[in-house]
Amino acid sequence: MGATDALGGKSWTFLTNHARVLIHVARNPQARIRDIAGGIGITERATQLIINDLEEAGYLTRARVGRRNTYTINPDRPFRHPAEGDQHINALITLFAGHDETFTGHDAPSRSPAREQATPDEH
């Protein structure tokens, strides 16, 4: 029998761990592997493998700054699945991270003023 979530249904989510790592890095480009892993609930090894995947595919760039890594996301990369391939990941990053400063070296996408001013009950 499968695991159940708080709503009593099967336990599943819409986002993959790759998306979660990308969003976490967008929120904090200086995050350590340990912080990313703890933040999304996966092992440090899994986090490292995902970062390697994202870097190899061109979704992020890793740079050494002192004793730490810092990451820059390439928001112009398309989603990998053909069904979403016409969309860039900047939409995902903006939706979940919403920080203009995460788009280092690129123009940040504009945010909807109505969305920013909406109260939680309006969503």
Any idea what the radius of gyration is? Answer: 16 Å
Average pLDDT confidence is 81
Number of strands: 2
Strand ordering within the main sheet? 1-2
Strand content: 5-15%
Q: Helical region count?
A: 5
Secondary-structure class = alpha+beta
The span between the termini is 34 Å
Unreliable segments of 5+ consecutive residues: 100-123
Give the biggest beta sheet.
2 strands, antiparallel
State the shape: globular
Helical content class: 25-40%
Helices and strands, in order, run as: HHHEEHH
What is the strand and helix layout of this fold?
Blueprint: H1 17-27, H2 33-40, H3 44-56, E1 60-65, E2 68-73, H4 90-96, H5 113-117
Antiparallel strand pairs: 1-2
Description:
With 123 residues, the protein is of the alpha+beta class. The chain has 5 helices and 2 strands; from the N terminus they run H-H-H-E-E-H-H. It has helices at 17-27, 33-40, 44-56, 90-96, 113-117, and strands at residues 60-65, 68-73. Strands 1-2 form a two-stranded antiparallel ribbon. Strand 1 (60-65) and strand 2 form a beta hairpin. Helix 1 crosses helix 2 (33-40) and helix 1 (17-27) crosses helix 3. The longest helix has 13 residues, at 44-56.
Which features does this protein show?
single chain, 123 residues, alpha+beta, globular, disordered C terminus
Brief summary of the model shown:
It is built from five helices and two strands; from the N terminus they run H-H-H-E-E-H-H.
